[in-house]
Amino acid sequence: MKYIDEFRDGRTARVIAAAIAREADPARRYHIMEFCGGHTHAISRYGIGELLPPNIRLIHGPGCPVCVLPIGRVDSALELALERGAIVATYGDCLRVPATGGLSLLKAKARGADVRMVYSAADVIRLAQEQPGREVVFFAIGFETTTPPTALAIRQAEQLGLANFSVFCNHVLTPSAIANILESPEVRELGTVPLDAFIGPAHVSTVIGSRPYEHFAEEYGKPVVIAGFEPLDVMQSILMLVRQLNEGRAEVENEFARAVTREGNLKAQALVADVFELRKAFEWRGLGVLPYSALRIKAEYAAFDAERRFGLAYRSVPDHKACQCGAILRGLKRPQDCKVFGTVCTPENPLGSCMVSSEGACAAHYTYGRYKDAAVPTP
Amino acid sequence: MNDPRLPPEPPRRPKRDYVRPLDLKSGRIDMTHGSGGRAMAQLVDELFLPAFDNPWLAQGNDQAAFEAPPELAAGGRLVMATDAHVVSPLFFPGGDIGCLAVHGTVNDVAMAGARPLHLAASFILEEGLALADLARIVESMARAAREAGVAIVTGDTKVVERGKGDGCFITTTGVGVVPAGVRIAGDRARPGDAVLVSGTLGDHGVAIMAERESLGFATSIVSDTAALHGLVAAMVAAVPDIHVLRDPTRGGVATTLNEIARQSRVGMLLDETTLPVREEVAAACEFLGLDPLYVANEGKLVCICAPEHADALLAVMRAHPLGTQAARIGSVHADDHHFVQMSTAFGGRRIVDWLTGEQLPRIC
User: Could you tell me the pTM of the whole model?
Assistant: First the structure.
């Protein structure tokens, strides 16, 4: 595939790997967090960890939208589908997120709930038009990348006068999550969780631009390199971060310049600002309640807000006691450090949300990397 | 009582039964077509019998009786396989549920190294299915069976109420015979063996998905659905001691290799650079977020053999029209965890795990 294979070329990878090995100072360790699930997936799928010297550790961050969705929000979606008779439409990954009592939207579907998998918010508009007699709710999740399409769907529904369409909004914000990790006591107290630098999100940054990360570089002295989701992008960004750390710099650099500008997509930002406003607080799975970290639908569009329309009351539900998703999302633990990883908790029967999406740290390690734990002889 | 004064009435001949022919243009399946009455008999007589056209079916019995194949006397074994087909949509680029139902079971029988002999077919039809569609499906099935040299010798038809089926489900069962001395099975992969595939991966699944999602750029992709027993016969003739054959349908090559690794209690290592994948399929997978290793095939096989036989088998496969793109994709090794691993084209290594959940529902 032209314009894709070029970013997956093994020979170039080896050249960059050699440069990283040459430039990384053997006397120090490098702790680099890739915030985004897209990077986590690429790192596992292409085996990037194996191409790095042992003193560079990649820490998988909380940028997987399914992984940070708290149980209470999934419970609300289940309530809509099972008790309120609504058609609940959502992205494929959401269907398997475990909620209270081991239930998920997929299991609710087997019990008679009308749950539909969609590829885009536009599909839900079409569904609502086809089912005029039914309430159709879009269970919307995701970071800044999926927010503009949701905003567009709400505006379209208003123009079309669609009375049976609403959105259960769970859109969250990347900079708030990064700030929370940097503010957490474990990171602040030096030495507990060393975190030296960030690989910045690819698709999210096409929308919000590179400017929001400047705060992290300036305020916390952590270098950020925004990188694309192809494996060579990730390799190149690691090299750039190693150079910044070696030189004592803390800047925002843009490896993904083919798609990301400093200002981002202003049109998309305006669309989001028209439809959404900040929530005072929102619970993140694993990170807890974070102030101003999510969006809700503005009062002007209240008719399309499923929370208002169905009077949904939020109830926080704690994670399973053995589940370490919280510590893993903060970079405190690795998936293989969790007692239930690969035993009780597997992609078939996920206990925690990090095991659900292929972008989740646990699922990615289970699916692509667990042979390393088993110390299988290399054939 | 007859009046003696009137001439006697000519003897009455019974009227010939008149049945209005099936309306194959605009008729639809209704509940009577499954009730066991005349409507059902008519459907069988006018549609299934002439299409499948063979002496066993023509006898009209509830079963077919046939002679034992000569291989049995020489120490061969009978094999039997069954496969339910529920694909949506019923018609897709490169095929339809009818030919798929024949190929699926013929291939399952053939993967034992067997010569397929006969098929049984069982239809679950949904009330409201257009007879024109059913006729298309049955004709496609008949053509596929004819081309494969296999007769559909017995069958059954049931009708379910509207909303309780999806147009048409077809279950086929096949019997075949394996010549003496051939023992191909999923537990025979040995460390050192070579892993071969007969051609490009993921064509069927992507063709179905492209049809469902109306992917404009993927219109050139057609399903690879095909009967593989001819290819298998050529391979067995060249190398009777093939260890494992399996058709990587649902879950794709990744799932098939994991099944074999578990059955044979071995590990495998694939080389990503050797995987044959069509450019359009790779592009569609990229777009849809799929991995071609997990996408279904309906006309491909995975072969595991001793390393010294690999080149001979590849040559035979590439000389056959259904194996021109055959490739050696990896090797078997000892591994207590039975992991299937892959050296990535990027230079790293990763697990190729069992499929979790489903990549694409209802594809075969």
Answer: 0.85
